[in-house]
Bacterial bifunctional deaminase-reductase C-terminal domain-containing protein
Amino acid sequence: MAESGAGTELTLLEAGEPVDTARLRELYAYPDGLRDCLVRSNFIASVDGAATLDGRSGGLAGPGDRQIFAMLRALADVVMVGAGTVRAENYGGVKLDAAARDTRRRAGQAEVPPIAVVTRSGRLDPDMKVFTDTDVPPLVLTSTASAPLVAERLGDAAEVLDCSAADPDAVDPPTALRHLADRGLVRVLTEGGPTLHGTLTHHGLLHELCLTVAPVLVGGKARRITTGPVGFQTAMHPVHLLTDTAGYLYTRYAVGTD
């Protein structure tokens, strides 16, 4: 009787040369010539699939993860985040040092990518850190029903965009991405949360996933990196895999079969 895995070719991943900052930038570079949005997500999860520790993703992170987190932000035109994650993680604006700003400027990008907050209801307090601790005003991607009141409440603290399609009470993801592309913000990085991640994936709008696997077991009832009302399956293939002395794994997957 044949083994169930017969015909499968297994490969042992062995340690290679260290990856410096320049090489890391090459590994995560967006392709040239983008005209439409390329959406990349960045998440961390424990070995047993927990996306948070004590309710926050930052509790799982290590120095290597923070380095890649900063690199992914430095490469992006915009960082798209759900309002729930902005609240839970106490988001402020993206902070980049002088060298990163100079690199972006020479690449034809704005010095700092804005945060784009996705919110159907628009229930955002103007005193939130995302509006008060930022070098550039964020974008608020909201619904037709909410946009006028949100714009009045936030004033100059943000640019409010109506991102509805047929349903005036909902944010339509393709419409939101078209608004970003119209502004030249085609290198999109999303950091969640799990509901936004699930929505983008379910609509076929996610292109890449950068997933850090933290070398810990968490247990409990922590959420996964992707949630939503319905299940689905999206094929992905690995692009590269990195590790560090702390035992973290840094994976990059692209949607589709290789």
